[in-house]
Amino acid sequence: MRSFLILIALSTSLFSQARIGELTGIEGVRDNIIRGVGLVVGLNGEGDKSKLARRMIANVLKRSGVNALESDLDASNAAVVMVTARIDPFRRPGSRIDVTVSSMLDAKSLRGGTLLDTRLAGFDAETVYAIAEGPVVVNGVSAQGQSGSSVTINHPTVANIPNGALVEKAIPMRITDLRDVVTLNLKNQDWTTAYNIEKVVNGKYPGSARAVNAGVVEVKVPAALKDRVTEFIASIQDLTVEVHTVSKIVIDEKSGFIVAGANVRISKVAVAQGDLSVTVEEAPQPVVANSFTQGPSIAAVPRSRVSIEEEKSGLQVVKGGESVAQLAASLNALGASPRQLIAILQGIKAAGALHADLEVR
Question: What is the pTM of this model?
């Protein structure tokens, strides 16, 4: 597997510029998750084989005025699915939202299916906020041969329905709840960034902002703007502040991707790496075997050759750099694989030479 090192910032400065609206969210103004269990039909034999699927089909037919026994039904063209969606607090009844449909049982694919009307409720499972239905869109594909070999790309048992749910009830939210204090929650908690937001907001509205901690900034609404809260929030979100960039390297072991901030520093350190290569070679040797009844015959005697080779690797020096670009050049020069690169970075961190947080996923 090939490894990649991505630089997420080009500047070597510890600070960058960003809008407050991009850095924070407003307390009380958030999306809500709604969900429901539904039935996808029309799957051309790739559906469920469970009793639950047959029971749900029977219930659907019963609501339509048709009585049928579960034992008489075939669920191979249907699948029991979990339907989920996110609804924002300002979404009004009659508008539409996207939904995700995921198979819950043993269906092979949802391709070509249609979701029957499904109620989407909150976690109390009582209040219905939207109704989802419609043809599903599958991005994955799978194929299987008669010998049992199969190929799967992405996930054919997960699908989407763009604008697939009709909102029936709005999430309770009043903008008047923000008339006194607007609480800004930082998406990435940082003491310096919170203090910078306080300074910038107070520069426009003196004495209104207070950084409570690294993740929260409270802003009092001026008396003249209590009836124009939307205007006040928009003016705050449009302000630009300096953002303190955290020194961090994130490694995705599965894909081999490495993401590092531009302010990552590394001190001079020596690294040695080497691989053990184990080779097992099967070389059967023919021999002549005599039999009283059948005469001489040729048989193969199994013989294995096992060899172990150790790659010679000397101690290499990774030069200390002032930017992550020099760190990338040093590690790439080692020609390490993703797993070796992870071990090298962890070793450098343990030696105290990597001045950044190391996160392996």
Answer: 0.61
